[in-house]
Amino acid sequence: MRRRIWLITLGAAALLLVFALRWLALPPQVSGFIVDRIGRSLGLEITAGGASEYRLRGTPLLVLRDVVVREHGQPPLLRARRIYVALPWSTIRAGGEELIAQRIELDAPQFDLPALQRWLAKRPPAKKRTPTLTKGLRIRDGLIINDDWRIDGIDVQLPSLLPEKPLNARIRGRYLDAPTSIPFDLAVALTRPGNDAGLAVIGPLTIQHDDWRMPAHVHLSGPLHIGDDDLRITPARLAMSARYHQGETDLSFVLGLYGPLHFDEATWSLAPAGMALRGRDVMPTLDARGALALGRRLVLQLEGKLAEWPQAWPTLPPPLGQSTAPLPFALRYVGKPDLTEIVALQLQRDDTRFDGRFRLQEVSAWIDAGNGSPLPPLDGRLSTPRLEISGAQLQGVEITLDDPTLQDE
Fold first, then answer.
1. What are the tens digits of pLDDT across the range 135-193?
2. Whole-model pTM?
3. What letters, b where the CB count within 10 A reaches 16 and e where it falls short, cover 385-406?
4. Among 85, 238, 271, 304, which is least packed, fewest CB within 10 Å?
5. What's the 3-state SS for 188-254?
6. Are 157 and 172 in contact (CB under 8 A)?
7. Distances, alpha carbon 380 to alpha carbons 13, 168, 357, 376, 399, in Å
8. Nearest CA-CA partner of 10 in 136, 131, 162
């Protein structure tokens, strides 16, 4: 994500490991100066307000409580209710040349993402190493705070972290960017720690936005690359089965996407994208190509073909309704993610063409009404060489529909 989100865990682990090394390498009689000396060596101010534990017998360990870590004069980059670090004697004797620990645990950590990234950017390249965690990492009730979004309720279970070895983790939490929230519970796998490794993400999530919600099960895979300010999966393969709920509306569908996936400035974008949608009832079945973006606004620019006219849609008059030809279409939408703003649609079957604008919710309500108004709430033009209505055959038909509510938008 923006500013290397997936590296937060690794960066924090490396910071804590260096912290523990400096602590455990010093004799107990100077422990009163340890925190200050560690902070100075890292360019940080570190305070621990709660009772601490310090053990050298067996496997050395360090436990700190009520920890605050910051650069001088800056907001805290890390707060934690409890930090636990256990590491072997061989790591202590190496004097920082090795970043190998048994286990790291963080209870209620709060990461200030911009502050953490500012500190990491100042670290010498040789210091930005991925630690080895033989017995893994555990984070409980974590929080990541960014300028315009946050992730809360973070729970991470990482059994081990080994260089050039496959990584498997379970990550839970809730992404918040008002008015959108996305609770998730995902299994994450990497072929190895580091950039351009193969990534797989599988599990449930729910997109919630004001008065609608969309629970889904996703499977995302592709080579992962983290830049200084963004995230890319090129190419990404996304399969999703989902249900869309809004009021009495309940639509199920299966969606497949393929293309270069980019995350930056709290927006996911996929362009150029290949798309396959398989729906039921009023949700159509189609294949398309184009561009998609989802953030505080939704952007859809698609061209493709409807496999068939959905049976739940109003019946087309002959000969349109008798044709089995696919329906080429072009669709454009830029607006709120709930699809409440205007959709532009071009549709064709044989020699019949439609070019119009409408609001999806109003058209859906018109379809549900059944015997309501004979004209749909849309603005557009239909042209066809022949049309049959109530037994009468019309030639060279052109129909213009005007919706006053769409004229000025």
1. 999 999 999 998 888 999 999 999 998 888 999 999 999 999 888 899 999 999 999 98
2. 0.80
3. eebeeeeeeeeeeeeebebeeb
4. 271
5. EEECCCCCCEEEEEEEEEEEEECCEEEEEEEEEEEEEEECCCCEEEEEEEEEEEEEEEECCEEEEEE
6. no
7. 58, 52, 6, 10, 8
8. 131
